[in-house]
Design brief:
Blueprint lengths: L3 E6 L3 H9 L7 E7 L3 H11 L6 E2 L2 H7 L4 E4 L3 H13 L3 E5 L6 H14 L3 E4 L6 H11 L6 E9 L3 H4 L1 E3 L4 E3 L1 H4 L5 E3 L12 H11 L3 E8 L15 E8 L4 E7 L10 E7 L2 E4 L8 E5 L14 E3 L11 H5 L8 H12 L7 H18 L6 E2 L20 E3 L5 E2 L14
Parallel strand pairs: 1-2, 1-4, 2-3, 4-5, 5-6, 7-13
Antiparallel strand pairs: 7-14, 8-9, 8-10, 11-12, 11-18, 12-13, 14-15, 15-16, 16-17, 18-19, 19-20
Helix pairs in contact: 4-5, 5-12, 6-9, 9-12
């Protein structure tokens, strides 16, 4: 195989941007099909990609049956992505899926089992793990330069509720709470979840890559149901989770999609180790900070302070022409480059189906904890082992509290919630 024939499902801004600025600019890929159910968006796809009418589909099943492709990029609403991914893998296609893959534990299991049973590749398209600071921090951790990492944290504060709280089916656009009033065809948009903590792969994926670890237990609290920023009684403004990994590192994750906050940087991370500490910039004018424990630390003979890390920590380590066209700090093309390297050159995939589940499930379980006043819950392990062979169903698909008293799936909508105590 010289080139990978790829199809795309999902014609929103994100799907079109990644397709035109990354996929269609990469010599490893040939775009052979595109599916989008809404006619307005499908017209936008045609104009942006230049695909002929015969390569455009409004029905996914028809594209799967008629279009000859090797891999599928899924970039739709999170609650619809898993079914499309599973259907494609069962049809013999590799899958690249945007974040978050879902807000349900059961969907994580569906993806894992489909990949195991079909043998198809699955890659979650999370781009921040390819940034310079993650590459360098992962190298430092592997080389022992951090010592034992005792604590790490990440936060994602991105006020998008004012523009895309609702989906207008008539016009094929996202709209705000105010714009949706009086429009019967406007429905709540899945990209703004009931629990903000479930949208955590942009924090979990980089941190777990740095740590080489997985989350074992989690507890979470939030501000409670009902926004204090927007007139919405079915939004939670902010949630923060404390987690512990298998190796004993404590993590803190904070997410908010309604809080007024500077536009950049939306993400912030910190690593605290017994030999070194590091954090990313908090503002565009700021710099990263790195501190290494000196040999004379106990004597306090000289002032201890951080050193500034001035280079662009968000950009990829090597800024290529593709990076210059990609959004998200030039990182959007790198998950596709990694997948292409795996298929065409035998490289290891960075975020396969197990890594995707491990970066997604902690936020889902945290949302359940938040509905039980921070009760600690265990995060399931998804990799095959003594308790489950590859392709076998797990003993349970539900999250279980540490004390064993609660076992349940996540809440998706306010009308679906049970025993909500926040």
């Amino acid at each position: 195989m010289d080139r990978i024939r790829i199809a795309v499902v999902g014609g929103g801004n994100r799907g079109i941007s990644v397709t035109t600025n990354a996929i269609q600019r990469m010599e490893e890929f040939e775009l052979v099909g595109y599916c989008e159910r809404h006619p307005v968006r499908l017209r936008q796809v045609r104009e942006a990609t230049g695909l002929p009418e015969g390569r455009l589909y409004a029905d996914f099943g028809r594209m799967l049956a008629e279009c000859d492709f090797d891999a599928l990029y899924v970039v739709t609403e999170p609650l619809k992505q898993t079914a499309l991914c599973v259907q494609a893998m069962e049809a013999g296609k590799d899958v690249l899926c945007d974040v978050p893959v879902s807000y349900r534990l059961s969907d994580c299991w569906d993806l894992v089992l489909a990949a195991e049973r079909t043998g198809r590749r699955f890659q979650m398209v999370e781009q921040l793990r390819y940034s310079t600071f993650v590459e360098e921090a992962a190298r430092m951790r592997a080389a022992g330069e951090f010592g034992d990492v005792l604590y790490a944290e990440g936060q994602y504060i991105h006020n998008v509720a004012y523009t895309r709280t609702y989906w207008d089916e008539d016009r094929g656009v996202y709209c705000s709470e105010a714009e949706a009033r009086g429009r019967p065809h406007c429905t709540r948009e899945d990209r703004i979840p009931l629990h903000p903590i479930v949208y955590d792969p942009h924090e979990m994926s980089p941190l777990l890559r740095i740590l080489g670890d997985r989350v074992a237990t989690v507890t979470c609290l939030g501000t409670g149901l009902g926004s204090r920023v927007y007139p919405a009684d079915d939004l939670i403004d902010l949630e923060t989770a404390l987690m512990r990994t298998e190796k004993g590192t404590v993590l803190r994750i904070l997410n908010s999609f309604t809080l007024p906050y500077p536009a950049a940087p939306a993400h912030w991370y910190q690593i605290l180790g017994t030999k070194a500490s590091f954090e990313t910039p908090r503002a565009d004018w700021d710099a990263g900070r790195l501190w290494r424990k000196p040999d004379d630390y106990e004597s306090f003979a000289r002032r201890q302070d951080f050193e500034r890390v001035g280079r662009d920590l968000w950009a990829p380590p090597i800024v290529t022409e593709l990076a210059k066209h990609s959004s998200h700090f030039g990182l959007d093309y790198l998950p596709f480059q990694n997948y292409a390297d795996a298929v065409l050159r035998g490289a290891a995939m960075q975020l396969d189906v197990y890594g995707a589940a491990e970066a997604t499930a902690p936020g889902i379980v945290a949302s359940i904890s938040a509905e039980h006043e921070g009760t600690p819950f265990r995060v399931p392990g998804f990799r095959p082992g003594p308790e489950r062979k590859a392709g076998e169903e797990p003993a349970s698909r539900l999250a279980r509290s540490v004390d064993g008293r609660i076992e349940r799936e996540a809440t998706l909508r306010v009308r679906d919630r049970e025993a909500f105590h926040a």
